Amino acid sequence: MPKPVVGITVGDPAGIGPEIVSKALNNRRVQSLCQPVVFGTARFLNTPTLKTDPVRGHDNIIQAPFERSHGGTIVRLFEVEVKGTIESGKRSANSGKAAMAYLDAAIRAAQRHEIDALVTAPVSKSAIRMAGMHSFVGHTEYLAQVTGARLFAMMFYSKRLRVTLVTTHLPLKDVATSVTSKKILGAITLSNDALKKLGFDRPRIGVAGINPHAGEEKAFGDEDVRIVAPAVRKARERGIDAQGPVPADTLFRAAYKGEYDLVVAMYHDQALAPFKMIAFDEGVNVTLGLPFVRTSVDHGTAFEIAGKGVASEKSLVEAIKLAVRLCT
């Protein structure tokens, strides 16, 4: 069986994306698992801090459409033309435009079935807004929009803890009015399906409450009784092993100890504060509900260390490994 073709975007070329992509592609484990296709610009990948250039020669530079099959461990580059000056460590409109150009090219390749999975390096939302895309709030929402996905969710995966978000990039003041039973049920269902693909026979899913102490019998709001509990009940009626609402301050500890396989959290920082505390270097962001597999690192562009050769590629390597598992 041929190895899956994995498309990897460079992300914002002014950030650590070029460095971690290059380092990951020199990883023997990555080379053994997949046929990588990088969506980026060669001049940003050939950084002076790296000993080995993963893209070896102009013969490996491709354009659309391209053939899926490619033997060996050669890394191919889908060269995307970038205009203007981009300086490492400095966000700019040009770097934001480049990041979106890489992403759009990779999405088109996935929709043409030229790649089996998409793995993304980090982008800067502020740089993308500087480039004129003021509505961009993140990879997840953008991918759902351009693919027409109606039911989607953001899951973060590590060996010790897995979490799925009901809402993503929202101001905290908008969370309570944005959480619905339908969205919670969708997150539970998508998570259950994803975990089964990853080898969990009967996933145990803990659903966090919205309010402190899961509302404590309506003492701190009625949203948990009115919104969360009905979604959990419907999930259980569908045969999903879901429990909740459970107070978030105890649920994450229980999940970390192995009592749950995944936590469904109501909002961004409820999930990612504990997750990044224990799995920052190895965590993987997965977009559930898309017509193709998409994973990503769980960290940002880190402009402050860009170009210094000290960025860790661990999260990207794990993202590539998980993408291969999900598409095979």
Question: Can you describe what's shown?
Answer:
The chain has helices at 17-25, 28-33, 42-45, 93-111, 125-130, 139-147, 175-178, 181-197, 223-237, 248-256, 268-279, 314-327; strands at residues 5-9, 35-40, 61-62, 76-79, 117-120, 153-157, 162-165, 204-208, 241-246, 262-265, 284-288, 293-297. By secondary structure, it is an alpha/beta fold. The chain folds into two domains: 5-149 and 290-327, Isopropylmalate Dehydrogenase (3-Layer(aba) Sandwich); 153-275, Isopropylmalate Dehydrogenase, CATH 3.40.718.10. Strands 3-4-2-1-5-12-11-6-7-10-8-9 form a twelve-stranded mixed β-sheet. Helix 9 links the parallel strand 8 and strand 9 (241-246). Helix 8 packs across helix 9 (223-237). The longest helix is centred in the first third of the chain and has 19 residues, at 93-111. It is globular. The chain starts with a strand and ends with a helix. The mean pLDDT is 91.
